[in-house]
Amino acid sequence: MENQFSRTELLVGKEAMERLKNARVAVFGIGGVGGHVLEALVRSGVGTVDIIDNDKVCLSNLNRQIIATHKTVGQYKVDAAWQRMKEINPEVVIHKYRTFFLPETAGEFDFTQYDYVADAIDTVAGKIELVLRAKEAGIPVISSMGAGNKMNPAAFEVADIYETSVCPLARVMRRELKKRGIGQLKVVYSREQAIAPAAWQEADGSGGADRIGIMEENSACIGTGKEAGERRRIPGSNAFVPAAAGLVMAGEIIKDLIHTKV
């Protein structure tokens, strides 16, 4: 009998679809990358998803975030995402948290209840804590690296964090995870050289493009969300690069879930 997952079942089989239905995945960060991760998981038949984000949809999100429409501007992202996911699959179970994930809020989450964790947040403090908590619970985790200031959606690849290069955020993560004894982390990253937005170049003179790596590394500092926000520069983005990163992440999660007993 045909159902909304019939075409997926043709590729992966009935047993795999049952595994997806019984799986619970946590998506931290419902922005340009995380929104596409979430939607791909729900469209693939994942039965339960936790979504964690404290931001509201704003006008500048419309160029790249799949949950952002003129109708959802002003709504909390988790609320807009919940509504959209229910329209895609009314039976999906969505647990939503209006929370900015940092070490200070990590205790709100029991990682042992998840089958997979998707890290799509953009502060190093949160990313490191997320990886530590998932590893401690023995739960698979995949982390997105920098997607801002890039133009090539075909440049993303999946690798271990210690095999990455070029990406300034990945460089910071390698250093900080090594300090904490983390020996492996699956990531989605791009070796494309970032572009210095015109506004940055105007502010910094001719050195803008040369200093972009330093700027990005400094923006991914370890501190509170407020402090990090004050120190970081707003990156340029587009409709296709964050989406590509998110879909690659979702594909890895689905692949791993259907080959792992859930």
Structure description:
- The chain is built from ten helices and seven strands.
- The protein is an alpha/beta fold.
- It has one domain (13-258): 3-Layer(aba) Sandwich (Rossmann fold).
- Strands 3-2-1-4-5-7-6 form a seven-stranded mixed beta sheet, with helices on both faces.
- The longest helix has 18 residues, at 241-258.
- It is globular and about 65 Å long.
- The two termini are 25 Å apart.
- Mean pLDDT is 89; it is low at 206-231.
* Radius of gyration of CA atoms, rounded to a whole number: 18 Å
Series of secondary-structure elements, N-terminal to C-terminal: HHEHEHEEHEEHEHHHH
CATH topology name, in short, is Rossmann fold
| Coarse structural class | alpha/beta
Give the helix level as a range of percent.
25-40%
| Average pLDDT rating | 89
Say which CATH homologous superfamily is assigned.
Answer: NAD(P)-binding Rossmann-like Domain
Strands, count: 7
Molecular shape: globular
Please report the first level of CATH classification, the CATH class: Alpha Beta
How far apart, in Å, are the first and last alpha carbons?
A: 25 Å
